[in-house]
Amino acid sequence: MSLSRWFLLAASALVACPLLLAQRPSMHLPQQVVAGSAFSISTGGSGQGTLTIVGPGQALRRSVQLGSPVSIPAGVLYNAGDYVVILANGSDEQAGLIEVTPAQQPARLSFLAEPSRLPVDLQNGISGTVYVFDIYRNLIVSPMPVSFNLSDSLGPAQTRTVTTRNGVAWTRMNSAAKEGSARFVASVAGVASTRVIDEVPGDPCNLSMTAVPDKGGEAKLQTAPVRDCSGNPIPDGTVVTFTASFNGMQSTVDVPLKRDIAEVELPLPSGASVSVASGVVAGNEIHWRGQ
Fold first, then answer.
1. Residue 7 lies in a domain
2. Residues 93 and 157 in one domain
3. Predicted TM-score of the model (pTM)
4. pLDDT single digits (tens) 119-134
């Protein structure tokens, strides 16, 4: 190759390179975008290109005019997380990342309250856990104060304020001294969720019975009104067990409460012992001497 021809080819390459570089796609991305908000991507280059965005549970692809901004409407990218953005023009492409963050306005609460039914007067017996979400169901991980309120019709409400950590807040409450239904409410920034807790009597307390002979000579056994330790009546249908023992022999009778009392008639020989219990709670024992 002659020297003049080599210079001619080199000069042609120098002229062509800026033209080729000018056609390469380029873009400028926002570092962060709030979930569901509109935003734009500025692009450089010339000609037609393809914009691809891929992220958590979402993907979109659009034909774009290089050198013009690309507008992404509100509601298109709504799942929080990192998105890969690729701008391509033929074999040339540029890639980048966009972080989509949760909206900071709570829209939904996931409120777990348990148990839904428990005995009265139980310390720290009720637990409440709240997860805070935006309108697109993204967990809002920035700290937010959550108000917990447990109330019934008989006493003052219990309140707690707990700041979320990584989107979750939890607390414990005491059950009331009296039976009934309680409303457990969690609220944050005007968004509230309510659960109903059924507070029922606890185990029988100070269980006692009497034994008197009836007209037929049998023993009539009867409990005093059965209450829990807070004075709440034990529900009808709760089983009370009477146990009679004599000369190494034992017999039992299960009797359901009716109007707070359990009663039964038993043929007891003189010298027999009879006791009363309900569940794990034992009452008094009587030594029967008959009439």
1. no
2. no
3. 0.74
4. 998 999 999 999 999 9
- Short-list 165, 178, 171, CA closest to 148: 171
For residue 93, give both structure tokens: 């492409």
Q: What is the mean pLDDT of residues 251-269?
A: 92
* Domain that includes residue 256, residue range: 204-287
- C-alpha distances (whole Å) from 141 to each of 30, 35, 91, 166, 290 are 21, 13, 40, 4, 74
Question: CATH code at 265?
Answer: 2.60.40.1930
Are both 152 and 196 inside the same structural domain? yes
Alpha carbon of 143 to those of 99, 131, 168, 215, 282: distances in Å?
19, 11, 9, 74, 50
Question: What are the contacts of 154-157 at 24+ separation with CB within 8 A?
Answer: 154/178, 154/180
Q: With H, G, I as helix, E, B as strand and everything else as coil, classify residue 39.
A: strand
Task: Provide the 8-state DSSP code for 124.
Answer: T
Nearest-angstrom CA–CA distance, 136 and 78 = 6
Q: How many domains does the chain have?
A: 3
In a domain, 8, yes or no: no
Phi-psi region of 104 (alpha: psi -120 to 50; beta: other; left: phi over 0): alpha
